[in-house]
Write a structure and sequence with these properties.
about 220 residues; alpha/beta; Rossmann fold
């Protein structure tokens, strides 16, 4: 697959590293320092290129949005039309910028900012360093990457991409139902926590039933 990255900071940079590692191509964009972005792409090898956000959206099979919350609007403006394009939102609501209405998830809010996109959310619950350290585990030790979205076919594509990087994709449902995967770290949420597949499926069952999720697991 050709993976577009809008914002090659910690999270976007790790997604780019992991994507290249397993044979995907990446195209990177949206940096305050173009020279640094070019150097980063060069370090990834011949599977990486640099372009504008608009070029990323036009050429990628899926586009990862990995910018600070306060510049989401600017990044989307530079990306241009998203008609039918698959977007993976990794952002968390920290810092300045418009935010969700009371009771609205950040995913639902961002999906409303790009209604023409095939919107999904993932890669937002763990630090980039932890994601890098656990990518590629196998069997029961594989770490979960949560995802949500209202487009079932888009989520299947994203789940396949997540799995290719060596994580276990777990679908929490639609954008209105994914509060437990959003910041901040707190009781009765999966944000900031490591999960393996069996424990994650118990969380999904609880969310769908409208009851509190099980206690956070601990792994050796």
């Amino acid at each position: 697959m050709r993976i577009g990255i809008i914002g090659a900071g910690h999270i976007g940079g790790n997604v780019a590293h992991q994507a290249v590692r397993v044979g995907h191509e990446v195209i990177l964009s949206f940096s305050r320092d173009p020279a640094t972005l070019r150097a980063f792409a060069s370090g990834l090898g011949d599977r990486a290129a640099v372009g504008t956000p608009r070029e990323v959206v036009a050429s990628a099979d899926l586009t990862v949005l990995a910018v600070p919350w306060g510049v989401v609007g600017l990044a989307l403006e530079q990306a241009g039309p998203l008609d039918g394009r698959l977007v993976v939102d990794t952002t968390n609501q920290f810092g300045s910028g418009p935010g969700p209405a009371p009771g609205q998830t950040a995913a639902a809010f961002n999906a409303s900012r790009m209604p023409e996109a095939r919107y999904t959310k993932s890669f937002n619950t763990m630090t980039s360093g932890f994601q890098a350290a656990v990518a590629g585990r196998s069997g029961h030790s594989r770490v979960v990457q949560w995802l949500c979205g209202d487009d079932e076919e888009a989520k299947k594509v994203v789940a396949g991409f997540v799995e290719s990087l060596g994580y276990a994709p777990v679908d929490l449902g639609g954008v209105a139902d994914c509060a437990v995967m959003e910041s901040p770290r707190r009781p009765n949420a999966v944000y900031g926590e490591e999960y393996r597949l069996a424990d994650a499926l118990a969380v999904v069952d609880a969310v769908r039933a409208g009851r509190p999720i099980p206690p956070t697991p601990a792994y050796r």
